[in-house]
Structures are given as structure tokens and as C-alpha cells.
Design goal:
Blueprint lengths: L6 E6 L28 E3 L7 E7 L4 H6 L7 E8 L4 H9 L2 E3 L5 E3 L4 E5 L18 E8 L6 H8 L4 E9 L2 E2 L8 E4 L1 H8 L6
Parallel strand pairs: 3-9
Antiparallel strand pairs: 1-3, 1-11, 2-3, 4-8, 4-9, 5-6, 7-8, 9-10
């Protein structure tokens, strides 16, 4: 009898690749000290410098269900940027900004939700060294698409480069107070329910 599928939430720390194998000498998911079962893979990814919620599972059906389904799954990011964006900057981000993607092509982001916020719901120690003479501020950005480095490219276009990027939720699954490097296992009903996907047979 095959083993039941397993589902995990991970708070991916800064400086860890969102994968288990790599030809490069980087910290990987398997280096975090959690005994993930064989066949575990990440659903999507966060780049090396980004932090926050990463979903993992042994269920190979999930990639198609999550990324190719008819219902989009909003992803919320708390983004610390240089300077203080004004309302015009926020409106540009909300309506869509152009940036370069692979192959040198120009891509325009879809309309999204953007607001200035005091910071993420739970604050975690920063891996960055800050220049006390450069002001920073936080934005909360909710997207239903995810091009490579999209959030970083979007805020750079409006003149406020990203300093820190933390993904705090995917649909109804939230990072909460899960600490960097920590893992929380969910049962299938909670995992699928949080994503708004019926549990497959």
C-alpha cells in the first residue's frame, strides 16, 4: 500500500535555495535539520535572498492543481523598500508596471493590491545590515502571478528598490509566527482547504 501524501509549510530563511539539490555550494532545504520524507518537493520557489512561506509536499499532483487550475491563488508579500513611495508610486504598482523578463522581453504586471503598511504581521530578525541614513518603508503586495523576481523588479521600476522580501501567505495558508527554518506539517484537509482546492480522490 502506498504511503499517504504529506504536506508542509516552511519558513524559508534568507540564504537558502528553494530546492534539495544544486550544483552550487549553497544552503539547501535539506540543510534545515528537518527530516523531509523522500519525494518531497517545493511548490514554486522563493529566490535565495527572499524569506517566508514555502509549501512542500510529496504529492506530485499539487503542482498542476496549484499553478494550472482555473482559480488563481493570491500570494501576499511584505516588502521593505528604500525610501517612502508616494501614492502615485503605489497606484503605478496597482495598475501594472513593465519590466524585463527572460529573453529580453518586456512583461507588464497584472493589476494587483498594494498598500503601505507598518511592517509584516510578525517581525523576524533581519539578515540585512541597514544604512541608518537611508529611510525604508514596507509595502504589502498581493499577486496572482509570479514571474522570476517579479516583486523585486516591480518596486525597482517605481524607484524604490527592494531591501527585504517576505512572503506571508498563499491563499488561506499563512506564515503566521512560524520561525525562520521551522516547518509545520498539515493534514490534507487543512492544506487543500487553505488553498481552496477540493481534496482529490
Amino acid at each position: 500500500m502506498p504511503l499517504p501524501f504529506r504536506y508542509f509549510l516552511l519558513h524559508k530563511p534568507h540564504g537558502v535555495l528553494s530546492q534539495f539539490v544544486s550544483p552550487y555550494p549553497q544552503r539547501l532545504l535539506g540543510d534545515l535539520g528537518f527530516a523531509f520524507p523522500e519525494g518531497t518537493h517545493a511548490l514554486g520557489r522563493l529566490d535565495l535572498e527572499s524569506e517566508g512561506l514555502l509549501l512542500l509536499t510529496t504529492d506530485k499532483r499539487m503542482t498542476k492543481l496549484l499553478f494550472q487550475g482555473a482559480v488563481p491563488h493570491p500570494r501576499v508579500y511584505h516588502v521593505e523598500v528604500k525610501g517612502v513611495p508616494d501614492e502615485a508610486d503605489l497606484e503605478r504598482l496597482r495598475t501594472g508596471v513593465p519590466f524585463l523578463i527572460e529573453g529580453g522581453r518586456t512583461f507588464t504586471s497584472a493589476p494587483c493590491t498594494v498598500e503601505a503598511v507598518p511592517g509584516p504581521p510578525h517581525y523576524f530578525p533581519s539578515p540585512y545590515k541597514y544604512n541608518p541614513y537611508v529611510p525604508t518603508s514596507w509595502l504589502k503586495i498581493s499577486l496572482t502571478e509570479g514571474r522570476f523576481h517579479q516583486v523585486r523588479k516591480m518596486v525597482r521600476v517605481v524607484g524604490h528598490p527592494c531591501i527585504r522580501l517576505l512572503r506571508t501567505s498563499i491563499s488561506g495558508l499563512e506564515l503566521g509566527d512560524l520561525q525562520p527554518g521551522a516547518v509545520r506539517e498539515l493534514d490534507a484537509e487543512t492544506f487543500f482547504g487553505g488553498l481552496g482546492i477540493p481534496v482529490p480522490d
